[in-house]
Known about the structure:
Number of helices: 11
Strand content: 5-15%
Radius of gyration: 18 Å
Shape: elongated
Distance between the termini: 34 Å
CATH class of the largest domain: Alpha Beta
Largest sheet: 7 strands, mixed
Order of helices and strands: EEEHHHHHEHEHEHEHEEHH
CATH architecture of the largest domain: 3-Layer(aba) Sandwich
Amino acid sequence: MMTGVLPAGPVRAVIIDLDGTMVDTAGDFHAAINAMLGALGAAPDMPAEEVVSYVGKGSENLVRRALDVRLPPAQANSRFAEGLELYQRAYIAINGQHVNVYDGVREGLAALRDMGIALACVTNKPRDFTQPLLAQLGLNTYFDLVYPGDAFQYRKPDPYPMLRVAEAFGVDPVEIVAIGDSENDARAARAAGMRVLAVPYGYNHGQPIQGAGADAIVDTLFAAAELIRPYAEPHNAVSAASTDDPCS
């Protein structure tokens, strides 16, 4: 079931979020955060629902939020660097062990590729987590460009990485559709002048996606592709534009 309408106009590129949009990574986040808390002596384990409510603004924010609710303020601040290192070490060790690709993702990516649309993945997930996960799941081959959360000084909800995609592809932002599961995705895309589709099954900091400001909400990535199809315009020049990008 779809709600809302995708504004008409040519679509030459699509930007897709990772966590909560293409892949359910809640299990990895949950395991890594609790490994960190255990190493810091901040047991008991944090419930999965609570961990997921902190997801979406990068590893630093996730660790900060977890420490803030488990340690006194002074300790949360003084042990943040240690906690972040423990979390990153734990996450790298289990990356991809507790994840699932959402229904319709592979079909949606394949459909968009068949339309000749340029594809980029923009995520707040760090590079060391992003690239191995995409490769492990066989999703990396669909994308012309991948910008992880540490590719630039700014990340979503800042529009900077979205605008860098437009620049790399040589596409006007109004010809790009962004697809995500959270307000961060919608805010970044809106500020960049792009159209926005949202999926309802992701995280969005525990808030209903209906308030995120997307043009339309679609049940699956394949449904998003079918909504885009009438406006699709092949962009065959993308390979040359993105190949030399140091962050691709």
